[in-house]
Every structure is written in structure tokens, then in C-alpha cells.
Design brief:
With about 220 residues, the chain is α/β, with parallel strands linked by helices. It has eight helices and seven strands; from the N terminus they run H-H-E-H-E-H-E-H-E-H-E-H-E-H-E. It has a single domain, classed as Rossmann fold (3-Layer(aba) Sandwich), CATH 3.40.50. Bound molecules: S-adenosylmethionine.
């Protein structure tokens, strides 16, 4: 078992929810939230699916919900520390009547270390991770050598991580960390047409940000 890491990869923003988020939480956490106890087996959470994917840092959840709606045959687990985001995504799950998306509210490092067996997932999605632009904050970027080891352990053979970011220096950081590791192979890819353009991403593009997609496959 590990505790919450000292170097948090997220900002502490408080748990103040809007009324809509709070109400969605009250109504639907018991149906779509996964409590953290013992070992969680993704295939058992989504009977009838043969592929299960974890999205790390779902934010307000718009993109997560659109992807789950587009691929009803895949089981998705979204992990987010920020309670208002979880409430917002529960609202999407309700309105879009999604049956293939469940949520965990905790730091993904603890979640994966403590509650999932190795080779639990077909893929990870990591979209627009906090860029931590200041040099003295780089250690808080989620993409780190120990993170690569963790996701490598939790991926099935042939599994992959798909990352998107609109922070060019973070692209270089990601490429450097993956290049220094023998655990993965891959790099930049074209934006898959199924990855939804969220409000967050649209705002970045409006400010002139260049969005890069990267995909790295687990080496056995
Ligand atoms: C910049 S936001 C992007 C959100 C969303 N993926 C999107 O594209 O709009 C990054 C999110 O990752 C979450 N996050 C960062 N580190 C995390 C961790 N260790 N475990 C769970 N969530 C994390 C943050 O709380 C934040 O909501």
C-alpha cells in the first residue's frame, strides 16, 4: 500500500461544488462511483466488455463522457481528485444515460498501486495533464519515470497510453522521459478523429496553443 504522494500532480482547489454538481453527486455517486476497497477488477465492473480503459484526470468530464458515449462496447474508469469535476461528470453520465463509465475520486498513484492488479487495463488516457510550467514545479508533472513503471505494470500486453497536451514544453518533457525508458515504444501521432474537442481544448486553441497527441505502446 502507498500513501498519497508528497509531490501532488494536481492543484488543491477545494471541494466547493455548484448546486448541480452537488445534486448529481448525491443522486449518482452510489451508482457510478467506485469505492476504494480491496482489489478492483475492471472486467468485473463491465460485464460483456472485452476492453477496459482508465482515463487519468477527467477534469470536468465533458471529453470523458463523449468518448464513453461513442464506444459503448468499452468499459471506462475515470479517475479524478477534484470533487466538483466528479460531480460534473456524474451529471453527464445521468443526462447521457451512460452505462459504461464509472468514477474513482482519488490520486491515481494510490488508486493503481493499491487497488488494481498488474495487467488490469487495455489502455490509459491522459488528456491535458496539468503542465506545471515553472521549473521548480516540474517534479509535479505526472509523467515521470516512476509513473511510466506504474502504467507499464498495469497495462495488458500490447496496451498503450494515449496522451494529449497543449503545452509544447510538456511534449518535449514527455518525449524525453519515454525515450529514456525501455518500457514503451511510440511518439507523436495525428489527432484521432474520435477524440472530442472539449471547451477546455477549444479555448487553448483559441489562444493559439498547438495540441499534440502522443501514443506509447507497452513493450513486453
Ligand atoms: C488540466 S486538467 C484536464 C482535465 C481533462 N482531462 C480535460 O482535458 O479537460 C487535469 C486534471 O487532472 C487531475 N489530476 C492531476 N493529477 C491527478 C492525479 N494524480 N490523480 C487524479 N487526478 C489528477 C486534476 O485534478 C485536473 O482535474
Amino acid at each position: 500500500m502507498i500513501e498519497r504522494p508528497d509531490n501532488r500532480s494536481y492543484r488543491l482547489r477545494g471541494d466547493r461544488q455548484t448546486l448541480a454538481q452537488e445534486n448529481a453527486y448525491k443522486r449518482s455517486w452510489s451508482a457510478f462511483g467506485v469505492e476504494l476497497s480491496g482489489t478492483i477488477k475492471p472486467a468485473e465492473l463491465f460485464p460483456g466488455t472485452s476492453v477496459q480503459i482508465m482515463e487519468i484526470g477527467t477534469g470536468m468530464g465533458e471529453g470523458t463522457a463523449l468518448i464513453a458515449a461513442a464506444f459503448p462496447e468499452i468499459g471506462y474508469i475515470g479517475v479524478e481528485v477534484h470533487k466538483p469535476g466528479v460531480g460534473a461528470l456524474l451529471g453527464y453520465i445521468e443526462r447521457m444515460n451512460l452505462k459504461n463509465l464509472l468514477l474513482i475520486k482519488e490520486d491515481v498513484h494510490m488508486v493503481l498501486h493499491n487497488h488494481f492488479e498488474n495487467q488490469a487495463f487495455d489502455a490509459f488516457h491522459l488528456y491535458f495533464p496539468d503542465p506545471w510550467p515553472k521549473r521548480h514545479h516540474h517534479k509535479r508533472r505526472i509523467v515521470q519515470p516512476d509513473f511510466l513503471q506504474l502504467i507499464h505494470d498495469k497495462l495488458k500486453p500490447g496496451g498503450y497510453i494515449h496522451i494529449a497536451t497543449d503545452w509544447v514544453p510538456y511534449v518535449q518533457w514527455i518525449e524525453t522521459i519515454f525515450a529514456a525508458s525501455s518500457l514503451f515504444t511510440g511518439g507523436k501521432i495525428d489527432r484521432p478523429e474520435w477524440r472530442p474537442l472539449t471547451k477546455f481544448e477549444g479555448q487553448g486553441i483559441g489562444k493559439g496553443h498547438v495540441v499534440t497527441d502522443l501514443k506509447y505502446f507497452k513493450k513486453d
